[in-house]
Amino acid sequence: MKRRRACAAGGGVVAAFALALPAMAQSFNIDFGNTLQGPGFGSPAITYGAASGEVGTWQSINGVTASIPIILNGHNGAPTTVTITSLNTVQGFGATANGAAGGDDALLLNDALDLGSPGTQHTFTLNNLANGTYDVFIYAMAPDSASARTRVNVNGPSPGPGSQVCGGAYTGVFLAPVTHVVFDDVAISAGQMQINT
Q: Do 86 and 69 form a contact (C-beta atoms < 8 A)?
């Protein structure tokens, strides 16, 4: 069985997902957040791999409307059959108080989807994925507060067994669990993955 990689971001928010399926040419980088203007405006370069090292086109998504699927583009920028949906409507925002100093790090980390007040739970569902084993990177550092934390889980409840907490003060480098968390060996057998916050 081939190994795949998946990635995401946020912080009391969700800022980016990156799913890479290099053996099957099914790969994704998603930059959630402030794609319209201000801090974090724009997406990282195609050559930028963040903590996962997965390079390719970063798809900008400013917000997610509840239950309406968004078609994901692969690393080559072409649309695929894979979609992402959210149980809740969430909008993007940008901030620089806790953000990266500049460049692609800032484009990824200085914006995110606002998940609301502590205790609010969200589920993001990816459908039509190729079956296999994934490593999932979730970038969940709040761009506006070094004290904010985001609890996330893949294919399980959050909070719940296996969930991880992400957040803290940005130090200029990617560092788990400050800028992101990693879920290794996530098995996908029915084409679906859920990321719960």
A: no
